[in-house]
Structures are given as C-alpha cells and as structure tokens.
C-alpha cells in the first residue's frame, strides 16, 4: 500500500464512479479497478459496494477513508516541513557571543534573521570569547562571536571571519576632568586608574592593552565583566573606563566618551563556526551575516558550508 492507493480510494469515494474517478487521477478505468481490488485484497475487507447506481464505501471503507485522508495530509505536511528544513527555515541555532556584540553587530543580524526565519529556535548565550570558543569546539554551540579568532586544541577545525573592527575609547563620569574633551592621549591615560575588561573574560583584549600600557597601569586596573559594567563604574568615578568605540551605544547621560590618541585598535570582532557543519540553518544565518556585513562572504571563501556557497556567500 502506498500514497497512490490512498488517493485512488479517496477519488472513488468522492466521484462514486470508476470512470469519473479514473479521469480525476489521470489513469484509465481498468487500472483503477485493478488497484482498488488489489487494495481490498491487501486489507482483507471489501471497501466499496459496486451497485448499478454507483460505487459507495462500505463500513470498512468509511473507516479506511478517515485514516487515508489523515495519512495524505501528514505526508503533504511532511514534504512541506522537509522543504522548510532544507532551506534553513526551521530548526535550531545556538549562538554564543560577547556582550559588546549586542551594541552593533547582533541587533541588525538577529533582527533580520528572526524576521526571515521565524520557525528557527534561537539559543542565545552571552559568554566570554574563550568560553564560546570551547563550547563551539565541543559541539555545544553552532556559532560564536568574540574578540579575536579562537585558539588552542580544536581551533584548526573552525572557520573564523572578521565581522567588525573597533578602536579603543575612554569613558569617564561627567565630573571627571576629561569630560567634555574630544580626545585623550595615551600618555594621559597611563596616569589614571583604569577600568578594563576582566582578564579572565577577555584575555585577548588585555593582550592588546599590554602593547600600549605599562604593567603597573594594568595591574592596578579595576576589572569589569562587560562594557555596561565599565560604563557604570566610570559613572561612579572609580576611574577611566577603556573599551570598544561601540560602547557609545550604551553610554549613559552621566558619562562622557573620548577618542584615544593615537588610534588604538582592539582585537577584531570574529564570527566562528565548525568547518564541517553543513546545517541549512547555519547556512541561512551566515547568509544573513553576509547581507549585513559587506565583505564577509568573500572572506569565508571555500570554507563556507555547501548551503552557504550555493546561496552566493563566496
């Protein structure tokens, strides 16, 4: 028994005539009669009464037709669901990200992806770069966004692309002497008590800061978990907060943000995923990133999953 038999039986029940039913399903009457007879033999019950006035379902036939209609509906729904899954319209995407990614990159990416893929379940996890890299390598995440490319064992199996660059800025409370200044020099900052990202949370950021600040300045710095805490502590007058320029989006009325001179670049904002992951949902997500971040598709190159390369993400 297959879907064809179900459709034949339903057509015969609807038209109550072998000739009309055969025409509706696109076959000749004799083959239809043989298929219905074969179906009845397989089931072991007479499904239709053949009378001079027409062909009508028996009690067994009525019971069979109820199930047949449901089965065909389920088969149709299964085909639709399979197509949606193949296009990345359903499924799950697990994303790990650093907090500062919520200031510029992720609002536009997640907003567009969510609008175009409402059937995808998003698992969103704020975590440090090191934590998200470990989770990605371990298969607990599908995508990670952090500062700098993941390092260590297993990182060679990842594809990492730069999705943003950001420079260092200083944030102070409005009562601080730097408030109102357009920029502050590194030499001035070295004389201040600094507020920086936690060493345990973002070691790559600290590594970059070590290139422009002496050990004393960093060893006496106050550590904060994320940019919001850096801003809050600066507002309290604890010191001068250092962070990415995108923190302007989260700055409070009681703070002031200064450019740092000379310009000092932070580690790139990097998106990573497993090279062998051919998930259609991942492909759809990366396609959204490509549309939001020009140049990302070119940097992905041939390491992109098949679904991404086919969609033009080169």
Automatic annotation (TrEMBL):
One of its GO terms (molecular function) is DNA binding. Coiled coil: none annotated. Belongs to the LysR transcriptional regulatory family. This is LysR family transcriptional regulator. It holds the Pfam family HTH_1. It comes from the Bacteria. It comes from Amycolatopsis acidicola. Keywords: DNA-binding, Transcription, Transcription regulation. GO terms for cellular component: protein-DNA complex. SUPFAM superfamilies: Periplasmic binding protein-like II, Winged helix' DNA-binding domain. Residues 1-58 form the HTH lysR-type domain.
């Amino acid at each position: 028994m297959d879907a064809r038999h179900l459709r034949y039986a339903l057509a015969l029940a609807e038209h109550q005539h072998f000739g009309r039913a055969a025409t509706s399903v696109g076959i000749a009457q004799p083959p239809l009669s043989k298929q219905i007879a074969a179906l009845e033999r397989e089931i072991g019950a007479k499904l239709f009464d053949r009378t001079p006035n027409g062909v009508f379902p028996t009690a067994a036939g009525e019971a069979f037709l109820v199930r047949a209609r449901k089965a065909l509906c389920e088969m149709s729904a299964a085909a639709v669901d399979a197509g949606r899954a193949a296009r990345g319209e359903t499924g799950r995407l697990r994303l790990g990200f650093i907090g500062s990614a919520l200031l510029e990159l992720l609002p536009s990416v997640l907003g567009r992806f969510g609008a175009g893929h409402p059937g995808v379940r998003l698992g969103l996890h704020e975590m440090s770069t090191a934590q998200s890299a470990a989770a990605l390598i371990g298969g607990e995440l599908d995508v990670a966004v952090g500062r700098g490319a993941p390092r260590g064992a297993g990182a060679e199996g990842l594809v990492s692309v730069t999705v943003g660059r950001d420079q260092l800025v200083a944030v102070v409370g409005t009562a601080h002497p730097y408030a109102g200044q357009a920029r502050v020099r590194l030499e001035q900052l070295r004389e201040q008590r600094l507020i920086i990202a936690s060493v345990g949370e973002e070691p790559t950021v600290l590594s970059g800061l070590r290139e422009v600040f002496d050990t004393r300045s960093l060893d006496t710095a106050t550590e904060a978990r994320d940019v919001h805490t850096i801003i809050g502590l600066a507002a309290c007058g604890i010191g001068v907060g250092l962070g990415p320029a995108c923190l302007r989006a989260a700055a409070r009325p009681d703070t002031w943000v200064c450019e740092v001179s000379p310009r000092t670049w932070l580690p790139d904002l990097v998106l990573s995923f497993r090279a062998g992951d051919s998930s259609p949902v991942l492909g759809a997500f990366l396609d959204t990133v490509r549309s939001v971040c020009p140049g990302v598709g070119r940097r992905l190159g041939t390491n992109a999953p098949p679904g991404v390369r086919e969609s033009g993400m080169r």
